[in-house]
Amino acid sequence: MAGLSSRSAVAIHALAMLAHRRGGPLTSTEIADSLDSNPVLVRRILGHLRDAHLIWSTEGRGGGWSLARSPRDITLYDAYAAVEEGQVFSRHTHPPSRACEVGRNIGDLLDAEFRSAERALEEQLGRTTIADLLQRILASDGEPRIH
C-alpha cells in the first residue's frame, strides 16, 4: 500500500511556519531547523508547494520562502495534493488468483471502499485551513490567536 508519506506533515508544518512568520520570508534552513530535518529535503517539499502556487521564493540576501496566498485560502488538502503522489490505498501488488472466489471479487469491492475513504480524507483535509491550524497551534502554546 502506498499510503501517506511524511511529506504531507512536512508541507503542512512549513506552511504553518510561513503563516506564523511576520515581517519577511523564511529560509529553508529556518524551516528545517523547526522540523529538525535536512534543509535539502525541506527544499524538495518547498519546491512542490511552489509548483502548486502555495508559496513563492525570493533569492539573495533577505530572500527565502513566503506564502503565495492568505493562510485562510490554503487548506490542508492543498498541501497534501501538492506533495503526495498516487492513491492513499491501492490493490495488491500482485493480482489475486482468479481461481479463488475471494480473489476474483475482492478487487472491485476494495476499490469502492478505498475511493470512499480517500474522498473522506480529502473532505476532512479540505475543511481545515492553515489559518485554522495556526490558530489552534497558538492557542495550545498560550500565545495570542491570529485574526
Automatic annotation (TrEMBL):
It comes from Streptomyces spiralis. One of its GO terms (molecular function) is DNA-binding transcription factor activity. Coiled coil: none annotated. Gene3D superfamilies: Winged helix-like DNA-binding domain superfamily/Winged helix DNA-binding domain (1.10.10.10). InterPro entries: Tscrpt_reg_Rrf2, WH-like_DNA-bd_sf, WH_DNA-bd_sf. Pfam families: Rrf2. It comes from the Bacteria. This is Rrf2 family transcriptional regulator. One of its GO terms (cellular component) is cytosol. The lineage of its organism: Bacteria, Bacillati, Actinomycetota, Actinomycetes, Kitasatosporales.
